[in-house]
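Reply to dn_fold:

You asked what the input looked like. This is it:
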Amino acid sequence: MAFYDNKHWLLSHTRNSFISSDDTGVCEVVMAGENIARQLEFGKYDCYPGIESDEDDLDAYGQSLDLHFDMEYGRFRSNTAVRLKKMDEERKKASSVRHVKWEKPHVCLTDEEKAELFKRKDFREKRKNSQPKSLLTEQLAKNPFVHPLQIYAKFDGSTQVGVVTKKFLIYLPMLEDNNYPLVVQVVSYAKIQDLIGLIFWRCSIEHPDVVFKGIENYSLYMAEDDGEVDFAFPCLEPKENVAKFGFKILALVENDQSQARHERLSTTHILVDKCDDASSSSLAKGKKPNENNHQADGGDMERVQGDMNAIDATLFQSFQVYILGTVRRNLVHLGISGEKVEFYPAVNQRSSARFKWAQQKAARYHMDSIVACDLTETKSNKSNFRLVYDHMTNDGPVFKHHDFEVEQRTAKEIVQKVNHILDLRPSSARRKEYLALREHKSHRKKSFPLGPR
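and this is what came back:
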């Protein structure tokens, strides 16, 4: 406990009071190095602790026990610094505030103009019942008329540059003047339904009075040179590509007429079914059926089926067959279309990878160089057929061949397909020469004299 008569405590308290109350910090600089205990005179009964101790030990007694400095150990800020900070904050706030000066307009409105701004309305007057119009209706009324068939104009090959096109002669039976066909040039990647749309687009320009139904109500059929529609063949599939078909003369027929024509042609199927039922019932009763009528109907069916195969013959089709070589046979893919015949070896052949000399090379022959395709040998489950082609040399044409082996049904289909294509194409002089040479060899074999044994 400290009393006010304690000189040491009074000096320490006074010293700390000066230091803490001085904002300039001069008292702290002056009094920091004083040693109070050594400077004071002491009597017999006065006790000043820390006389013999070092200056470092007096630091604990030089501080007031009741006063504690801040952790920053800095002097307090003056009022000037605080005021400057407030001025900076006010300046920043003032920069974000925009001052607008209100001025009266120089233009003076007349009484008539003021009256037009605020007109009096008679609320008693009944509003007229006017039907509102939508924005879509207004835009359609403003925009020019767009033909719905204009989207098919992009398939017109006459306006394309650097694109493969095909030319067709289209007869239109629904027109009064149907003596001359409509020449249509279409791009090769278009489909049959796109070709029909292009025909409609051309007709709408050249014959605007003719009204057509939807595209799905019409079909394209093969036609003769004079425009007669051949209903014996089916219509062209709408999803097929126009590049697959080799014939150029077509006719656009409505589906109702073509359907009636097909119903008349399909009576042969019904007659055949009825003959089969009659023959089965007559056999059950022990009676003999009429064989002549049955054979006639069967001949009609075979003729119609042959016509169907003739149409599909020009389409590309691939077969997996074995080509017979001098050493071994190799598995190849045989592709046949109306323009060419090609074959290339199958990829998954392990033996060909071992023996490079046994690999089968790919080959391609144009259909004009093909002269014949016949069955040569028929086994229990497989058949061999020969494809004869013309190989031009300096000495003249030389006929060579490739022998293939495949199942009987596939071999007959391939031979029939190639022969149909050869019949549809005009006979070349090389094919006529080969047929004459083969016929001459057959006569020589028949007339070969057999001598005595």
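Residues 310-347+359-444 form a domain with the PH-domain like fold (CATH 2.30.29.30).
Hope that clears it up.
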